[in-house]
Amino acid sequence: MAKLYVVGFGPGGYEHMTVKAVRAIEGADLIIGYTAYVEMLKAAFPDKIYLSTPMTKEIDRCRLAVEKTMAGLNVALVSSGDSGIYGMAGIVLQVADQIQAPVEIEIVPGVTAASAAAAVLGAPLMHDTALISLSDLMTPLDLIMKRVSCVAQADFVICLYNPKSKKRKDYAAQAAALVMEHRSAQTPVGIVRHAGRDGQQTVITELGKLAEADIDMFSIVIIGNSRTYVKDGKMITPRGYQL
Amino acid sequence: MAKLYVVGFGPGGYEHMTVKAVRAIEGADLIIGYTAYVEMLKAAFPDKIYLSTPMTKEIDRCRLAVEKTMAGLNVALVSSGDSGIYGMAGIVLQVADQIQAPVEIEIVPGVTAASAAAAVLGAPLMHDTALISLSDLMTPLDLIMKRVSCVAQADFVICLYNPKSKKRKDYAAQAAALVMEHRSAQTPVGIVRHAGRDGQQTVITELGKLAEADIDMFSIVIIGNSRTYVKDGKMITPRGYQL
Protein backbone atom coordinates (compact mmCIF):
# COMPACT_ATOMS: atom_id res chain seq x y z
CA MET A 1 0.00 0.00 0.00
CA ALA A 2 1.19 3.48 -0.78
CA LYS A 3 2.38 5.60 2.11
CA LEU A 4 2.64 9.29 2.91
CA TYR A 5 5.84 10.39 4.60
CA VAL A 6 5.84 13.82 6.23
CA VAL A 7 9.53 14.58 6.06
CA GLY A 8 11.44 17.27 7.92
CA PHE A 9 14.69 17.43 5.97
CA GLY A 10 16.53 19.67 8.45
CA PRO A 11 18.08 23.05 7.70
CA GLY A 12 18.58 22.29 4.00
CA GLY A 13 22.05 20.92 3.43
CA TYR A 14 22.12 17.23 2.46
CA GLU A 15 24.49 16.39 5.30
CA HIS A 16 21.94 17.48 7.93
CA MET A 17 19.20 15.17 6.64
CA THR A 18 18.58 12.00 8.59
CA VAL A 19 19.14 8.63 6.98
CA LYS A 20 15.38 8.06 7.15
CA ALA A 21 14.59 11.37 5.43
CA VAL A 22 17.01 10.51 2.62
CA ARG A 23 15.44 7.06 2.23
CA ALA A 24 11.87 8.46 2.24
CA ILE A 25 12.76 11.02 -0.44
CA GLU A 26 14.70 8.52 -2.55
CA GLY A 27 11.86 6.01 -2.31
CA ALA A 28 9.05 8.46 -3.09
CA ASP A 29 7.21 8.50 -6.40
CA LEU A 30 6.37 12.14 -5.82
CA ILE A 31 7.82 14.88 -3.63
CA ILE A 32 5.50 17.72 -2.62
CA GLY A 33 6.51 20.93 -0.89
CA TYR A 34 6.61 24.70 -0.74
CA THR A 35 8.47 26.05 -3.78
CA ALA A 36 11.58 27.25 -1.92
CA TYR A 37 12.02 23.92 -0.09
CA VAL A 38 11.60 21.94 -3.28
CA GLU A 39 14.38 24.01 -4.85
CA MET A 40 16.68 23.10 -1.95
CA LEU A 41 16.06 19.39 -2.48
CA LYS A 42 16.58 19.38 -6.22
CA ALA A 43 20.33 19.84 -5.79
CA ALA A 44 20.60 16.63 -3.75
CA PHE A 45 17.92 14.62 -5.57
CA PRO A 46 17.89 15.88 -9.18
CA ASP A 47 16.09 12.91 -10.72
CA LYS A 48 12.95 12.91 -8.61
CA ILE A 49 9.50 14.18 -9.56
CA TYR A 50 8.44 17.30 -7.68
CA LEU A 51 5.23 19.26 -7.19
CA SER A 52 5.36 22.60 -5.46
CA THR A 53 2.74 25.02 -4.13
CA PRO A 54 3.17 28.60 -2.87
CA MET A 55 3.76 29.51 0.77
CA THR A 56 0.20 30.28 1.87
CA LYS A 57 -1.26 27.14 0.29
CA GLU A 58 -0.51 24.73 3.15
CA ILE A 59 -3.93 23.08 3.15
CA ASP A 60 -3.99 22.61 -0.62
CA ARG A 61 -0.54 21.09 -0.39
CA CYS A 62 -1.64 18.62 2.29
CA ARG A 63 -4.82 17.67 0.37
CA LEU A 64 -2.73 17.08 -2.73
CA ALA A 65 -0.34 14.88 -0.77
CA VAL A 66 -3.19 12.83 0.72
CA GLU A 67 -4.97 12.49 -2.62
CA LYS A 68 -1.86 11.40 -4.50
CA THR A 69 -1.19 8.80 -1.81
CA MET A 70 -4.78 7.52 -2.10
CA ALA A 71 -4.18 7.26 -5.86
CA GLY A 72 -1.38 4.81 -5.14
CA LEU A 73 1.76 6.93 -5.12
CA ASN A 74 4.34 6.93 -2.36
CA VAL A 75 4.54 10.58 -1.43
CA ALA A 76 7.08 12.59 0.55
CA LEU A 77 5.54 15.82 1.82
CA VAL A 78 8.64 17.84 2.68
CA SER A 79 9.45 20.86 4.78
CA SER A 80 12.68 22.22 6.17
CA GLY A 81 13.61 21.72 9.80
CA ASP A 82 11.52 19.26 11.79
CA SER A 83 8.11 18.52 10.25
CA GLY A 84 6.75 18.31 13.81
CA ILE A 85 7.84 21.80 15.00
CA TYR A 86 5.79 24.53 13.26
CA GLY A 87 5.82 22.10 10.32
CA MET A 88 3.33 20.22 8.13
CA ALA A 89 2.69 17.25 10.47
CA GLY A 90 -0.36 18.77 12.14
CA ILE A 91 -2.18 20.00 9.07
CA VAL A 92 -1.69 16.79 7.15
CA LEU A 93 -3.11 14.71 10.01
CA GLN A 94 -6.06 17.09 10.24
CA VAL A 95 -6.69 17.03 6.49
CA ALA A 96 -6.47 13.22 6.33
CA ASP A 97 -8.92 12.99 9.20
CA GLN A 98 -11.33 15.50 7.64
CA ILE A 99 -11.61 13.63 4.38
CA GLN A 100 -11.45 10.26 6.17
CA ALA A 101 -8.56 9.25 3.95
CA PRO A 102 -7.48 5.64 4.43
CA VAL A 103 -3.77 6.41 4.03
CA GLU A 104 -0.87 5.43 6.20
CA ILE A 105 1.01 8.52 7.38
CA GLU A 106 4.46 8.52 8.95
CA ILE A 107 6.04 11.60 10.48
CA VAL A 108 9.81 11.63 9.88
CA PRO A 109 11.45 13.99 12.40
CA GLY A 110 14.39 16.19 11.44
CA VAL A 111 16.85 18.72 12.85
CA THR A 112 14.81 21.80 13.78
CA ALA A 113 16.04 25.31 12.99
CA ALA A 114 16.79 26.03 16.66
CA SER A 115 19.26 23.13 16.75
CA ALA A 116 20.86 24.10 13.44
CA ALA A 117 21.31 27.72 14.54
CA ALA A 118 22.57 26.76 18.00
CA ALA A 119 25.27 24.49 16.54
CA VAL A 120 26.63 27.41 14.54
CA LEU A 121 26.54 29.85 17.47
CA GLY A 122 28.22 27.56 20.01
CA ALA A 123 26.01 26.14 22.77
CA PRO A 124 23.23 28.60 23.63
CA LEU A 125 20.52 25.96 24.30
CA MET A 126 22.15 24.10 27.19
CA HIS A 127 19.36 25.17 29.52
CA ASP A 128 15.54 25.45 29.43
CA THR A 129 14.43 27.05 26.18
CA ALA A 130 11.19 28.48 24.83
CA LEU A 131 10.42 28.26 21.12
CA ILE A 132 8.18 31.13 19.98
CA SER A 133 7.03 32.01 16.47
CA LEU A 134 6.58 35.72 15.86
CA SER A 135 4.22 35.06 12.96
CA ASP A 136 0.79 36.46 13.78
CA LEU A 137 -0.94 34.91 10.77
CA MET A 138 -2.48 32.26 13.04
CA THR A 139 -1.85 33.64 16.53
CA PRO A 140 -2.98 36.96 18.03
CA LEU A 141 -0.05 39.30 18.60
CA ASP A 142 -1.00 39.91 22.24
CA LEU A 143 -0.74 36.16 22.99
CA ILE A 144 2.66 36.02 21.29
CA MET A 145 3.93 38.95 23.33
CA LYS A 146 2.41 37.56 26.55
CA ARG A 147 4.42 34.41 25.91
CA VAL A 148 7.61 36.39 25.35
CA SER A 149 7.04 38.28 28.58
CA CYS A 150 6.31 35.15 30.66
CA VAL A 151 9.39 33.26 29.54
CA ALA A 152 11.57 36.36 29.94
CA GLN A 153 10.44 36.53 33.56
CA ALA A 154 11.35 32.88 34.18
CA ASP A 155 14.81 33.25 32.61
CA PHE A 156 14.34 30.91 29.66
CA VAL A 157 16.64 31.01 26.67
CA ILE A 158 14.28 32.28 23.94
CA CYS A 159 14.41 31.08 20.36
CA LEU A 160 12.39 33.17 17.91
CA TYR A 161 11.12 31.45 14.75
CA ASN A 162 9.76 33.59 11.88
CA PRO A 163 11.17 36.75 13.46
CA LYS A 164 10.36 39.05 10.56
CA SER A 165 8.43 39.41 7.33
CA LYS A 166 7.32 42.29 5.14
CA LYS A 167 4.27 42.84 7.36
CA ARG A 168 6.03 42.21 10.66
CA LYS A 169 8.95 44.58 10.67
CA ASP A 170 9.20 45.47 14.36
CA TYR A 171 7.99 42.38 16.24
CA ALA A 172 11.53 41.30 17.12
CA ALA A 173 12.16 44.78 18.50
CA GLN A 174 8.92 44.61 20.53
CA ALA A 175 9.95 41.22 21.88
CA ALA A 176 13.41 42.53 22.79
CA ALA A 177 11.87 45.44 24.70
CA LEU A 178 9.71 43.03 26.73
CA VAL A 179 12.66 40.75 27.53
CA MET A 180 14.69 43.78 28.66
CA GLU A 181 12.15 44.38 31.43
CA HIS A 182 13.66 41.27 33.04
CA ARG A 183 17.12 40.92 31.52
CA SER A 184 20.12 43.18 30.88
CA ALA A 185 20.51 44.99 27.54
CA GLN A 186 23.92 43.28 27.32
CA THR A 187 22.35 39.79 27.18
CA PRO A 188 23.92 37.97 24.22
CA VAL A 189 21.75 37.43 21.16
CA GLY A 190 22.68 35.16 18.28
CA ILE A 191 21.19 35.61 14.83
CA VAL A 192 21.71 32.96 12.19
CA ARG A 193 20.44 33.42 8.65
CA HIS A 194 20.10 30.31 6.49
CA ALA A 195 21.43 28.15 9.35
CA GLY A 196 22.98 24.92 8.11
CA ARG A 197 22.62 25.61 4.40
CA ASP A 198 24.16 27.61 1.57
CA GLY A 199 24.49 31.31 2.36
CA GLN A 200 24.73 30.86 6.12
CA GLN A 201 25.45 34.10 8.01
CA THR A 202 25.95 34.54 11.74
CA VAL A 203 25.91 37.58 13.99
CA ILE A 204 26.31 37.70 17.74
CA THR A 205 24.99 40.93 19.22
CA GLU A 206 23.26 42.18 22.38
CA LEU A 207 19.63 42.38 23.39
CA GLY A 208 19.77 46.18 23.45
CA LYS A 209 20.86 46.18 19.81
CA LEU A 210 18.40 43.62 18.48
CA ALA A 211 16.04 46.31 17.20
CA GLU A 212 18.70 47.50 14.73
CA ALA A 213 19.91 44.04 13.72
CA ASP A 214 19.58 42.70 10.21
CA ILE A 215 16.87 40.02 10.44
CA ASP A 216 14.62 38.46 7.83
CA MET A 217 12.27 35.51 7.42
CA PHE A 218 15.22 33.15 6.90
CA SER A 219 16.71 34.09 10.29
CA ILE A 220 16.53 32.44 13.67
CA VAL A 221 17.10 34.63 16.74
CA ILE A 222 18.36 33.12 20.00
CA ILE A 223 18.22 35.35 23.10
CA GLY A 224 20.42 34.06 25.92
CA ASN A 225 19.29 33.68 29.52
CA SER A 226 20.77 35.71 32.40
CA ARG A 227 23.89 33.51 32.50
CA THR A 228 24.63 33.24 28.79
CA TYR A 229 28.00 34.67 27.75
CA VAL A 230 30.15 35.05 24.66
CA LYS A 231 33.74 33.82 24.58
CA ASP A 232 35.99 33.63 21.52
CA GLY A 233 33.01 34.19 19.25
CA LYS A 234 30.96 31.37 20.78
CA MET A 235 27.67 31.92 22.61
CA ILE A 236 27.43 29.64 25.62
CA THR A 237 24.66 29.09 28.17
CA PRO A 238 26.31 27.24 31.07
CA ARG A 239 24.55 24.29 32.63
CA GLY A 240 26.14 24.77 36.03
CA TYR A 241 28.98 22.25 36.04
CA GLN A 242 31.97 23.10 38.24
CA LEU A 243 35.02 22.92 35.96
CA MET B 1 44.94 18.60 11.90
CA ALA B 2 42.80 16.40 14.12
CA LYS B 3 39.31 17.57 14.87
CA LEU B 4 36.77 17.08 17.64
CA TYR B 5 33.19 16.50 16.53
CA VAL B 6 30.49 16.89 19.17
CA VAL B 7 27.85 14.63 17.67
CA GLY B 8 24.18 14.43 18.57
CA PHE B 9 23.15 11.13 17.03
CA GLY B 10 19.39 11.59 17.55
CA PRO B 11 17.12 9.24 19.46
CA GLY B 12 19.32 6.19 18.93
CA GLY B 13 18.16 4.31 15.86
CA TYR B 14 20.58 4.48 12.92
CA GLU B 15 17.87 5.82 10.60
CA HIS B 16 17.40 8.96 12.70
CA MET B 17 21.09 9.95 12.53
CA THR B 18 22.00 12.71 10.14
CA VAL B 19 24.33 12.03 7.23
CA LYS B 20 26.89 14.27 8.91
CA ALA B 21 26.66 12.39 12.22
CA VAL B 22 27.20 9.08 10.39
CA ARG B 23 30.22 10.52 8.54
CA ALA B 24 31.72 11.99 11.73
CA ILE B 25 31.38 8.66 13.55
CA GLU B 26 32.67 6.61 10.62
CA GLY B 27 35.62 8.96 10.19
CA ALA B 28 36.57 9.13 13.86
CA ASP B 29 39.64 7.39 15.26
CA LEU B 30 37.96 7.29 18.65
CA ILE B 31 34.35 7.58 19.83
CA ILE B 32 33.79 8.83 23.38
CA GLY B 33 30.48 8.83 25.23
CA TYR B 34 28.39 7.87 28.21
CA THR B 35 28.27 4.09 28.55
CA ALA B 36 24.59 3.67 27.55
CA TYR B 37 25.01 5.83 24.41
CA VAL B 38 28.12 4.00 23.34
CA GLU B 39 26.20 0.72 23.57
CA MET B 40 23.53 2.13 21.22
CA LEU B 41 26.15 3.03 18.63
CA LYS B 42 28.00 -0.28 18.70
CA ALA B 43 25.14 -1.98 16.85
CA ALA B 44 25.43 0.41 13.90
CA PHE B 45 29.22 0.88 13.98
CA PRO B 46 30.66 -2.38 15.38
CA ASP B 47 34.23 -1.92 14.16
CA LYS B 48 35.01 1.42 15.76
CA ILE B 49 37.07 2.08 18.85
CA TYR B 50 35.04 3.31 21.82
CA LEU B 51 35.79 4.84 25.20
CA SER B 52 32.98 5.27 27.69
CA THR B 53 32.65 7.05 31.04
CA PRO B 54 29.79 6.88 33.59
CA MET B 55 26.87 9.31 33.63
CA THR B 56 28.09 11.80 36.22
CA LYS B 57 31.55 12.12 34.65
CA GLU B 58 30.65 14.70 31.97
CA ILE B 59 33.67 16.93 32.61
CA ASP B 60 36.15 14.03 32.63
CA ARG B 61 34.59 12.84 29.37
CA CYS B 62 35.02 16.25 27.74
CA ARG B 63 38.63 16.58 28.99
CA LEU B 64 39.40 13.15 27.60
CA ALA B 65 37.89 14.12 24.24
CA VAL B 66 39.90 17.35 24.09
CA GLU B 67 43.14 15.64 25.16
CA LYS B 68 42.80 12.81 22.66
CA THR B 69 42.18 15.36 19.90
CA MET B 70 45.28 17.31 20.98
CA ALA B 71 47.20 14.03 20.76
CA GLY B 72 46.29 13.82 17.07
CA LEU B 73 43.17 11.65 17.00
CA ASN B 74 39.94 12.58 15.24
CA VAL B 75 37.39 12.23 18.02
CA ALA B 76 33.60 11.98 17.99
CA LEU B 77 32.17 12.93 21.39
CA VAL B 78 28.68 11.47 21.16
CA SER B 79 25.40 11.93 22.93
CA SER B 80 21.84 11.03 22.05
CA GLY B 81 19.41 13.63 20.75
CA ASP B 82 20.88 16.99 19.78
CA SER B 83 24.31 17.71 21.27
CA GLY B 84 23.21 21.34 21.55
CA ILE B 85 20.04 20.81 23.64
CA TYR B 86 20.93 19.71 27.20
CA GLY B 87 23.88 17.99 25.50
CA MET B 88 27.67 18.00 25.62
CA ALA B 89 28.28 21.02 23.35
CA GLY B 90 28.45 23.56 26.19
CA ILE B 91 30.73 21.65 28.53
CA VAL B 92 33.20 20.71 25.83
CA LEU B 93 33.53 24.34 24.68
CA GLN B 94 34.03 25.40 28.31
CA VAL B 95 36.62 22.70 28.97
CA ALA B 96 38.55 23.49 25.78
CA ASP B 97 38.57 27.16 26.73
CA GLN B 98 39.67 26.44 30.29
CA ILE B 99 42.73 24.43 29.26
CA GLN B 100 43.33 26.72 26.25
CA ALA B 101 43.30 23.70 23.97
CA PRO B 102 44.21 24.52 20.36
CA VAL B 103 41.68 22.09 18.90
CA GLU B 104 39.10 22.62 16.23
CA ILE B 105 35.63 21.76 17.54
CA GLU B 106 32.54 21.27 15.41
CA ILE B 107 29.05 20.84 16.84
CA VAL B 108 27.00 18.39 14.75
CA PRO B 109 23.29 18.95 15.47
CA GLY B 110 20.83 16.06 15.67
CA VAL B 111 17.16 15.24 16.17
CA THR B 112 16.33 16.22 19.75
CA ALA B 113 14.19 13.99 21.97
CA ALA B 114 11.21 16.38 21.78
CA SER B 115 11.10 15.97 17.99
CA ALA B 116 11.50 12.20 18.17
CA ALA B 117 8.71 11.87 20.74
CA ALA B 118 6.41 14.29 18.91
CA ALA B 119 6.72 12.33 15.65
CA VAL B 120 5.50 9.21 17.43
CA LEU B 121 2.60 10.95 19.18
CA GLY B 122 1.27 12.79 16.12
CA ALA B 123 1.80 16.54 15.97
CA PRO B 124 1.80 18.01 19.49
CA LEU B 125 4.49 20.67 18.84
CA MET B 126 2.78 22.69 16.14
CA HIS B 127 2.65 25.74 18.39
CA ASP B 128 4.96 27.55 20.80
CA THR B 129 6.71 25.06 23.05
CA ALA B 130 8.80 25.23 26.21
CA LEU B 131 11.55 22.69 26.84
CA ILE B 132 12.15 22.15 30.55
CA SER B 133 14.44 19.65 32.25
CA LEU B 134 13.16 18.38 35.61
CA SER B 135 16.66 17.42 36.70
CA ASP B 136 17.64 19.48 39.73
CA LEU B 137 21.27 18.33 39.79
CA MET B 138 22.33 21.69 38.31
CA THR B 139 19.20 23.84 38.72
CA PRO B 140 17.32 24.75 41.93
CA LEU B 141 13.91 23.04 42.07
CA ASP B 142 12.14 26.32 42.77
CA LEU B 143 13.46 27.83 39.52
CA ILE B 144 12.35 24.73 37.60
CA MET B 145 8.85 24.94 39.06
CA LYS B 146 8.70 28.70 38.49
CA ARG B 147 9.42 28.01 34.84
CA VAL B 148 6.69 25.37 34.66
CA SER B 149 4.23 27.77 36.21
CA CYS B 150 5.10 30.69 33.89
CA VAL B 151 4.75 28.69 30.67
CA ALA B 152 1.54 27.06 31.90
CA GLN B 153 0.10 30.55 32.36
CA ALA B 154 1.03 31.56 28.81
CA ASP B 155 -0.44 28.39 27.28
CA PHE B 156 2.77 26.87 25.92
CA VAL B 157 2.98 23.24 24.96
CA ILE B 158 5.40 21.89 27.59
CA CYS B 159 8.00 19.25 26.89
CA LEU B 160 9.62 17.73 29.97
CA TYR B 161 13.11 16.28 29.62
CA ASN B 162 14.54 14.09 32.42
CA PRO B 163 11.11 13.79 34.04
CA LYS B 164 12.08 11.23 36.65
CA SER B 165 14.98 9.50 38.35
CA LYS B 166 15.46 7.49 41.55
CA LYS B 167 15.85 10.71 43.54
CA ARG B 168 13.13 12.69 41.71
CA LYS B 169 10.06 10.52 41.97
CA ASP B 170 7.33 13.15 42.17
CA TYR B 171 8.60 16.14 40.16
CA ALA B 172 6.42 15.32 37.16
CA ALA B 173 3.41 15.18 39.50
CA GLN B 174 4.40 18.54 41.04
CA ALA B 175 4.71 20.03 37.56
CA ALA B 176 1.31 18.62 36.54
CA ALA B 177 -0.31 20.19 39.61
CA LEU B 178 1.14 23.59 38.70
CA VAL B 179 -0.01 23.34 35.09
CA MET B 180 -3.52 22.40 36.26
CA GLU B 181 -3.80 25.79 37.95
CA HIS B 182 -4.09 27.17 34.40
CA ARG B 183 -5.22 24.24 32.27
CA SER B 184 -7.92 21.55 32.43
CA ALA B 185 -7.20 18.14 34.00
CA GLN B 186 -8.33 16.66 30.67
CA THR B 187 -5.46 18.32 28.76
CA PRO B 188 -3.80 15.59 26.66
CA VAL B 189 -0.38 14.39 27.75
CA GLY B 190 1.86 12.18 25.65
CA ILE B 191 4.57 10.03 27.19
CA VAL B 192 7.11 8.32 25.01
CA ARG B 193 9.71 5.98 26.44
CA HIS B 194 12.78 5.25 24.30
CA ALA B 195 11.40 7.46 21.51
CA GLY B 196 12.82 6.55 18.12
CA ARG B 197 14.82 3.53 19.23
CA ASP B 198 14.44 -0.11 20.25
CA GLY B 199 11.88 -0.64 22.97
CA GLN B 200 9.78 2.42 22.11
CA GLN B 201 6.57 2.70 24.17
CA THR B 202 3.87 5.34 23.87
CA VAL B 203 1.04 6.37 26.17
CA ILE B 204 -1.44 9.18 25.67
CA THR B 205 -3.13 10.19 28.91
CA GLU B 206 -4.48 13.31 30.64
CA LEU B 207 -2.88 15.95 32.79
CA GLY B 208 -4.98 14.88 35.78
CA LYS B 209 -3.57 11.35 35.52
CA LEU B 210 0.08 12.25 34.95
CA ALA B 211 0.92 11.70 38.63
CA GLU B 212 0.05 7.99 38.30
CA ALA B 213 1.65 7.49 34.89
CA ASP B 214 4.58 5.18 34.34
CA ILE B 215 7.53 7.50 33.70
CA ASP B 216 11.26 6.98 33.97
CA MET B 217 14.52 8.64 32.97
CA PHE B 218 14.16 7.34 29.40
CA SER B 219 10.79 9.07 28.98
CA ILE B 220 9.81 12.37 27.40
CA VAL B 221 6.56 13.96 28.58
CA ILE B 222 4.66 16.36 26.31
CA ILE B 223 1.81 18.34 27.90
CA GLY B 224 -0.56 19.86 25.34
CA ASN B 225 -1.73 23.45 25.33
CA SER B 226 -5.38 24.47 25.87
CA ARG B 227 -6.27 23.54 22.26
CA THR B 228 -4.45 20.21 21.96
CA TYR B 229 -6.73 17.25 21.28
CA VAL B 230 -6.50 13.51 20.65
CA LYS B 231 -8.10 11.92 17.59
CA ASP B 232 -7.66 8.33 16.44
CA GLY B 233 -4.76 7.88 18.83
CA LYS B 234 -2.87 10.94 17.57
CA MET B 235 -2.12 13.98 19.74
CA ILE B 236 -2.54 17.17 17.74
CA THR B 237 -1.97 20.82 18.62
CA PRO B 238 -3.73 22.84 15.91
CA ARG B 239 -1.97 25.82 14.37
CA GLY B 240 -5.18 27.61 13.53
CA TYR B 241 -5.65 26.83 9.84
CA GLN B 242 -9.26 26.83 8.62
CA LEU B 243 -9.78 23.47 6.95
Tell me about this structure.
The structure is a homodimer of 243-residue chains. Chain A has helices at 19-27, 35-44, 58-70, 89-98, 113-121, 141-153, 171-179; strands spanning 3-8, 30-34, 50-53, 75-79, 104-108, 122-123, 129-133, 157-161, 188-193, 201-206, 219-223, 229-231, 234-236. Chain A has 243 residues and is an alpha/beta fold. In chain A, helix 2 (35-44) links the parallel strand 2 (30-34) and strand 3. In chain A, helix 3 (58-70) packs across helix 4 and helix 6 packs parallel to helix 7 (171-179). The radius of gyration of chain A is 19 Å and the shape is elongated. The termini of chain A are far apart. The mean pLDDT of chain A is 95. Chains A and B meet through helix 1, helix 4, helix 5, strand 6 and strand 7 of A and helix 1, helix 4, helix 5, strand 6 and strand 7 of B. Strand 7 (129-133) of chain A pairs antiparallel with strand 7 of chain B.
